[in-house]
Amino acid sequence: MKKIIKKIILQITRIRYGTVIMGHHVYEENDFKDFNGVSKKMLYDYLLKNQKKIVSLDKILKKSILKFRKISITFDDGYKDIYNVVYPICKKLNIPFTIFIIVDKIDKEGFLSKEEIEEMIKSGLLTIGSHGYSHKILTDYNIDLKKEILSTKKYLEKAFDYKVDYFAFSHGQFNGKVLKEVKLANYKKSFSASYLSLSNRVIPRLNLVHFLKPSGNK
Q1: Cα–Cα distance between 66 and 154 in angstroms, integer?
Q2: What is the pLDDT of residue 13?
Q3: For the residues 19-27, what does the mean pLDDT come to?
Q4: DSSP 8-state class, residue 29
């Protein structure tokens, strides 16, 4: 019964929002995935198969009766392998993608550098959004929400001369207070880490890890 309910929810989500996929890591190893990511081969095969369906976040969020046929690819945090592994694939296939960036991680070991982000933006394939300043859980009582939400928008826009319209909640956690700050910061849309959303202001996403399977498990 639970599987049937989930399937119905997924169909409603796709009709309403399209299919927005969320990933973190993409590994060089073939036919491998773990809790944090999938392999380069798995991602490449999926993107190649669905190449004509994949669009930017801007396009998938536009009103369309064909929205359920469209897919948009997003990655959270801004890990270095997005530049080393994902970006070359997307360039080869001419596929748009989005990175929700943790501002405090820019230029840190294992994460994207400012120059790498700039290069990907200039390619015309990358949309950037904010994933907060520190990646702390936004519903914690002592969190500085303006620093995490508004200040990161301003920083990214100034650093990259780029209009930032989208925000993804750290750890997928949010409440009414967080949603209010996102609205006050003038983000167009916010994104969860779940296929289910109970708010019209939050776009649900499907986890890449659960969405793709190694080629041997078709």
Answers
A1: 34
A2: 55
A3: 92
A4: S
